[in-house]
Amino acid sequence: MTAQTLFSHRVSIITGHYGTGKTELSVNLALALAAEGKRVMLADLDIVNPYFRSRERRPQLEAAGIQVISSSQACSDADVPALPAELLAILENRDIRGILDIGGDPVGARVLARFQPKIVQEDYQLIFVLNANRPEVREAEHAIAYLRSIEAVTGLTCSGIVNNTHLCGETTPAEIRKGAALAEAVSRQTGIPILCHTAEVRFADAVSDLREPVFPITINMKKPWER
Amino acid sequence: MEKELWKGNEAIAEAAIRAGCDCFFGYPITPQSEVPEYMSAHLPKAGGVFVQAESEVAAINMVYGAAGAGMRAMTSSSSPGISLKQEGISYMAGAELPCVIVNCMRGGPGLGTIQPGQGDYYQATRGGGNGDYRTVVLSPSNVQEAVDFVQEAFDIADQYRNPVMVVMDGLIGQMMEPIEWRPVPKRDLPPKDWATTGRKERDHNNIINSLYMDPDECDRHNEHLREKYDLMAKNELRYEEIQCDDAEVVITAYGTPARIALTAIETLRAEGLKVGLFRPITLWPFPEEALRTLSKSDHVKAFLDVEMSSCGQMIDDVRLSVEGRKPIHYLGHAGGVMPTVEEMVDAAKAALKEGK
């Protein structure tokens, strides 16, 4: 299944709790859409975290033809919560596929609120990323509370869940299945469909029996000692 | 126990709560703000007290007050904020008050950068405040160690009635890693019969103070502190040697550079080059004897000290331990830039070449 069918809306807004893997998903989605010949813009709107942001992958993304927009173009390390004017290009240029990588929690999602009137006029999808190994969202009830508060803060409606359960370098197919169970519980209680389960390419076959499609990813957000 | 994925700073805060932290006083600064953020949400629920102070100076003095009243008290900050706390740390050492201080280091000097750094080694190990004092300085190199050390730090502080620092570069605070909540060693701790909790049935007043009007009395007090520091140096020393048994080049590093060194060593060993890692886990006390012994080994030709510091700071302790027996090379970056695996591989090769 192609990335453009899994993530079928023009603008994908990636939200979730800290550390669920929003940035890794955003970077992989951008690269996959670009590989499918789409014009892609990725906006790094993480105003919460100072490290591990998608803008750090700018050279790799730009080499793939992806335009990267971040809050501080001149200085990627500034912790100034300023939003880039170019963000509007994603919302106004309907020829491009846009990915908005949002900082963790409702706090991080607040950046979207001022663009809400524009976003709702577009073909957008607010995507809630789940990682069953994050203690604060591993119970369906708590995950749903996060999801609802992100919706409340942004004024947008969530219409897709992505199970991105991992344990960094210690991920196993069993971890992905644990996340699938959580995603199913959240989906059942909210009626929001599961778009896909992410799995590193090496695990994609081992979890191919899951009911929903698997989106194969490669790890781009590496730590300095990781190869 | 099942592993969970935690962000370093949040894990540190949770670890402190699990260790029975009663009071947290803090002030936000990147890259450690998740510690007070997590504390503000979770410590009150656990029955503790969280206060966002008006400044770092206020926060450390609130720690002084709470610790004096026998509470398990903690503060955290990042480099420039830790500088502001130095007076308070000196006062607490003088007044013999236990507390835990976390420094999630960023690049300096001054405001520097919000990216990770290790330029506060001198400050942590030599004492940034005035007077003759020491603090045990624990330096984790991953989130699991950070969680374990923070829990142990409260016991160490209470055992010696002394501030304990947990010092790590910003990367450890900011990164996500799988951890488990494993039991940490618990100590038999003396009762806090010195705390200012009201006189009640006691026949004397407890007084918390670091001022001595009589110089002889102050001299005796310092002698008492020195004996305590000797005990801390003897009992609390921690370090790790990895593949040093046959190493021709020994990398000395702590925190994130030590982690990067492991990948560099793997690469070098795959090429048949004998390189090992000597990692101080306590920066004070420094594992001087162990490093001295290693430097006397015939197979060791050279040392390579790697730090996130432009001039090198820990390298002074490496020099004091090696005592000129072997050449000591240096690789360092400051200002938030981390040394890479490739740089370490190249530097180790150069050290090896020169050492032969």
From TrEMBL, chain A:
Domain CobQ/CobB/MinD/ParA nucleotide binding as annotated: residue spans: 13-108
Pfam families named among the record's database cross-references: CbiA
Coiled coil regions, renumbered to chain: none
Protein name: CobQ/CobB/MinD/ParA nucleotide binding domain-containing protein
Source organism (scientific name): Oscillibacter valericigenes
Taxonomic path: Bacteria, Bacillati, Bacillota, Clostridia, Eubacteriales
TrEMBL record, chain B:
Gene3D superfamilies cross-referenced by the UniProt entry: 3.40.50.920, 3.40.50.970
Limits of the Pyruvate flavodoxin/ferredoxin oxidoreductase pyrimidine binding domain: 14-233
Domain called Pyruvate:ferredoxin oxidoreductase core: residue spans: 247-344
Tree of life domain: Bacteria
UniProt keyword annotations, A-Z: Oxidoreductase
Name this polypeptide is given: 3-methyl-2-oxobutanoate dehydrogenase subunit VorB
Organism: Oscillibacter valericigenes
